[in-house]
Design brief:
- The complex is a heterodimer of chains A (about 100) and B (about 240).
- Chain A has about 100 residues and is mostly helical.
- Chain A has one domain (about 5-100): Four Helix Bundle (Hemerythrin (Met), subunit A) (Up-down Bundle).
- Chain A has 5 helices and no strands.
- In chain A, helix 3 runs antiparallel to helix 4 (about 65-80).
- The longest helix of chain A has 28 residues, at about 15-45.
- Chain A is elongated, with a radius of gyration of 14 Å.
- Chain B has 2 domains: about 1-130, Rossmann fold; about 135-230, OB fold (Dihydrolipoamide Acetyltransferase, E2P).
- In chain B, strands 2-1-3-4-5 form a 5-stranded parallel sheet, with helices on both faces. In chain B, strands 10-9-8-12-11 form a 5-stranded antiparallel sheet.
- By secondary structure, chain B is an alpha/beta fold.
- Chain B is about 30% helix and about 35% strand.
- Chain B has 7 helices and 15 strands.
- Classes of the chains: A mainly alpha (about 100), B alpha/beta (about 240).
- The interface of A and B includes residues 12, 14, 22, 26 and 58 of A.
Amino acid sequence: MEQPNLNYVEQLARGDEAIKKTLLDVIKTEFPEEKQDYYDSLAKKDYKKIEENVHRIKHKISILGLEQSYELANTYEHNLREKKMDGVDDFEQILTVITAYINTI
Amino acid sequence: MNCISIDDEKLARTIIKTLCDETDGLQLIGEFPNAMQAIKFLNEHDVDLIFLDIHMPDFTGFDFVKTLKNPPSIVLTTSDPKFAIEAFQYECIVDYLLKPIKANRFKMAVEKAKKQQLIANKVAENKAESKLENDFYINIDRRLIKIDIPSIYLVEAKGDYIHIKTEDKNYTVHSTLKKIEEKLPESLFLKIHRSYIINLKKIIDIEDNSVLIKKDVIPVSRSKRPELMKRLDLL
């Protein structure tokens, strides 16, 4: 599976370590919250909420340079709109990869 | 130019802040996680540009745009390209940025907003200047008399009346200085005292705290003098 990277964050920070740290701190704080929100919505089978949660997480997937994963998340989001769960396994695998990665940065 | 950002995701707001900090002449004066907080802020502050996320729970970006009576320039920020066509329906929406936002694309959007603002300022200026070509009517003894605005050189308040002095004739009308001030172009006229408005083009000379205009010597308030001096084309 493709691995996350910080290319976008580094481009944005343009060598400024303080900016890079600010961005990474936000990712490290916000992503676990969003992941938890996703699993909470999933437990309630609230498709609209799950779709919203996936939409928000999608942005972080793209920030971390996961292009193929972004497409998978996009497909899952569209399926949720039709109350279908196709793509859930792929999406949750992406969450696992990101969780492991942000513990290393 | 000042701006605010509206996005329910903190990372998105942090990215906008980073990009704003790197852009000359752009100050981020507020960040909001939802539209309601932003509306409250907009009721109390003048904002030139809004970076707005479309996809927010409860109240979408488009819902927000519809609530604005005099919207500033708006740049939409979204992960979804599918709203681009809908965005074209709104004159205030100047650009559409796909997340993750690239720095060069962000700068282009800001430039577009600046251009739109310049055009809007020019239109307002032209509107103000077009007042010069206009006339207005005064009611004297049930007769409506046309007054050529550029020919006015002095308006003086006297109790419940104002004296309008023009190149050809003087008129006394039951009105207030405030009412006539609204009809006169700011580029040409200035209130230099609580009882006098003058046509700046008709000034002959200024001495101490008075202005000679035609044959009238008009006092200048101490508080109005700096504004008067600023408006003169000094050598």
